[in-house]
C-alpha cells in the first residue's frame, strides 16, 4: 500500500519487451539503495516488484495486464517517473490509500498558469470520482477540485509541481489513474 506522496523522480534506463510477454524496466534513482529484490515500489502509480537492485538502479518485470492498463509501455530511455516506496506499518498516511493498482488512463486536456490541470477520464472511471475526493494521477495523491462529467480538475501546489513529473504535464499527456478504492468497495457492497 502507498500514500501517493512521491518520494523521488527516477529516470528510465531501458524498457525491454520480453518476446510478447510483458517487459522489463530499469530505473535509475537514489531510492534504489532502499530497495531489495522482492520489494514493492510504485512507478507512476503502478505497483511493481524490484527483481534486481544494483548501483543506484533497479529492474522490475511488467506483465501484459499492466502494460495494457497503464502508460508504462509508452516509456522510453530518458523518461522520468514518479517513485514511492510502500507505506510502513508504523508510518503516517499523509496522502490517501493508494494500492498501486492502476484503474486506467486519463488525458490532460487543459492546464492553466495557477497549476490546475484538467484531466479527461473514461466514464467507467468517472463514476468513482467525486468533488473534493481523492484520486491518484501518475501515483500522486491529489484532491479533485472540480468535476464536470468525466472531466476533473486538480490543483497542483508548487511543491507538487517541483517534486513530481506533473510539473511538465501538458495537454495531450496520458496519466495513470487510480480512483479511490473506498468508492469501488461501496459500489460493490451496495450492488449486492
In short:
By secondary structure, this protein is mostly beta strands.
Which regions contain 5 or more consecutive residues with pLDDT less than 50?
A: none
Structural classification: mainly beta
Topology-level CATH name of the largest domain: Elongation Factor Tu (Ef-tu), domain 3
Radius of gyration based on Cα positions: 16 Å
Please give the largest β-sheet: 6 strands, antiparallel, barrel
Q: Kindly, what is the distance between the CA atoms of the first and last residues, rounded to a whole number of angstroms?
A: 26 Å
Q: Per CATH, which architecture of the largest domain?
A: Beta Barrel
If you average the pLDDT, what whole number results?
A: 95
**Count of distinct strands:** 12
| Spatial strand arrangement across the major sheet | 1-2-5-4-3-6
So what's the overall shape? globular
Summed up, the helix count is: 4
Residues in β-strands, percent = 35-45%
Give, in order, the helices and strands. Answer: EEEEEHEEEHEEEHEH
Q: Can you characterise this structure?
A:
The chain contains 4 helices and 12 strands; from the N terminus they run βββββαβββαβββαβα. The protein starts with 7 loop residues before the first strand and ends with a helix. It is globular, with a radius of gyration of 16 Å. The protein is 14% helix and 40% strand. The strands form 2 sheets. A 6-stranded antiparallel β-barrel has the order 1-2-5-4-3-6. A 6-stranded antiparallel barrel has the order 7-8-11-10-9-12. It has 2 domains: 77 residues, Beta Barrel (Elongation Factor Tu (Ef-tu), domain 3); 88 residues, Elongation Factor Tu (Ef-tu), domain 3 (Beta Barrel), CATH 2.40.30. β10 and β11 form a beta hairpin. With 192 residues, it is mainly β.
Amino acid at each position: 500500500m502507498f500514500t501517493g506522496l512521491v518520494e523521488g523522480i527516477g529516470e528510465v534506463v531501458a524498457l525491454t519487451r520480453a518476446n510478447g510477454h510483458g517487459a522489463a524496466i530499469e530505473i535509475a534513482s537514489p531510492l534504489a539503495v532502499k530497495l531489495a529484490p522482492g520489494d514493492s515500489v510504485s512507478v507512476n502509480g503502478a505497483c511493481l516488484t524490484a527483481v534486481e537492485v544494483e548501483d543506484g538502479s533497479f529492474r522490475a518485470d511488467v506483465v501484459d495486464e499492466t502494460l495494457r492498463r497503464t502508460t508504462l509501455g509508452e516509456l522510453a530511455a530518458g523518461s522520468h517517473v514518479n517513485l514511492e516506496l510502500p507505506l510502513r506499518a508504523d508510518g503516517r498516511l499523509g496522502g490517501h490509500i493508494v494500492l498501486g493498482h492502476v484503474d486506467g488512463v486519463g488525458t490532460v486536456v487543459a492546464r492553466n498558469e495557477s497549476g490546475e490541470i484538467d484531466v479527461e477520464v473514461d466514464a467507467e472511471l468517472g463514476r468513482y470520482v467525486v468533488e473534493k475526493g481523492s484520486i491518484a494521477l501518475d501515483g500522486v495523491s491529489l484532491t479533485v477540485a472540480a468535476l464536470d462529467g468525466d472531466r476533473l480538475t486538480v490543483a497542483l501546489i508548487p511543491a507538487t509541481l517541483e517534486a513530481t513529473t506533473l510539473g511538465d504535464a501538458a495537454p495531450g499527456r496520458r496519466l495513470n489513474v487510480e480512483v479511490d478504492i473506498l468508492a469501488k468497495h461501496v459500489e460493490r457492497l451496495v450492488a449486492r
